[in-house]
Amino acid sequence: MTASTTPSRQHPVIAIDGPAGAGKSTLAAHLARRFGFLNLETGAMYRALALKAIDNDLGFDEESVLVELASNTRISLEPQREGNRVLLDGVDVSRRVREPDVTAAASKVSIHPKLREWMVAQQRLLGAAGGVVMEGRDIGTVVFPDAEVKIFLDADPEVRGNRRYRQITPNQPADSKVTEQGLIEELKERDARDRNRAESPLRPAEDAVILDSTSMTLDQVLQAAESIVREHVSDAQLH
Ligand code: DC
Question: Which end of the chain is more exposed for a tag (fewer CB within 10 A), N or C?
């Protein structure tokens, strides 16, 4: 990890990567608030494009069709206190992109190299000035390999599934078919797709700090991440 920022960037890029359900969004939102940076959830961009493919009755396998779709699409992320507001061609789709069909579709569209190139180019523009906490799967490896801070947030799939189950259960109708085991299986499927795809598979950058939260409380994770940031970035770059 480089200790100094590039001359064109006064403030650092903090890259947070890791598998689904590890708590990246919560961590990114916390660090962004702590240091006055923008938090950018790159997964929401893949989700927004997947939603547009669904709405246009397109399959998820045809790379050229999806790239063509992307070239006629505007996706904006508006950082908020707790996460991003997502605008697809000017329409707020923040809630819709979190639904299960879009979640599954996002994982499928994200395997296509040319579509990833389109996403990466946009993400580099969004983070070019620094002062961002960007979370995703390939931020430290591909989008900003020169990020000043790289954290790879991991946890066992059982723990991630259990956390997600407890998070969503209070909002589920009584006849909901969501089960903890079902969520764990779904996470494992997404992990396999994210880790095994040919293009930019999910893996820690060589210079990433790996934070395994399996046996940590949320507060411990937030504290540990804050310390990692302070170890790699000078006070001057944080203000
Ligand atoms: O982080 P998320 O669950 O919102 O991401 C949705 C999907 O997008 C996920 O299946 C992996 C993919 N993704 C990716 O391939 N690269 C990123 N930088 C972010 C997300």
Answer: C
CA–centroid distance, 202 to ligand 1, in Å, is: 10
**pTM for the full predicted model:** 0.92
Q: Give the residue from 13, 10, 4 showing the smallest Cα distance to 205.
A: 13
Domain count, the chain: 1
Q: Which domain holds residue 226?
A: 13-238
Query: What is the residue-level pLDDT of the chain in tens, covering all 239 positions?
Result: 545 545 468 899 999 999 998 999 999 999 999 999 999 999 999 999 999 999 999 999 999 999 999 999 999 999 988 889 999 999 999 999 999 899 999 999 999 999 999 999 999 999 999 999 999 999 999 999 999 999 999 999 999 999 988 888 777 777 778 899 999 999 999 899 889 988 888 999 999 999 999 999 999 999 999 999 999 998 888 87
Q: In this structure, what CATH number is given to the domain that contains residue 48?
A: 3.40.50.300
Residue pair 125/89 in contact (Cβ under 8 Å)? The answer is no
DSSP β-ladder status, 149-154 and 209-212: parallel
Task: Give domain status of residue 6, yes or no.
Answer: no
The residue written with tokens 């650092």 in the block is 12
CA of 79 to the centre of ligand 1 (A): 17
Of 17, 110, 153, 203, the one to substitute when testing ligand 1's pocket (max ligand atoms within 8 A of C-beta) is: 110
In this structure, the residues whose C-beta lies within 6 A of any atom of ligand 1 are 20, 42-44, 46-47, 106-107, 110, 136-138, 190, 194
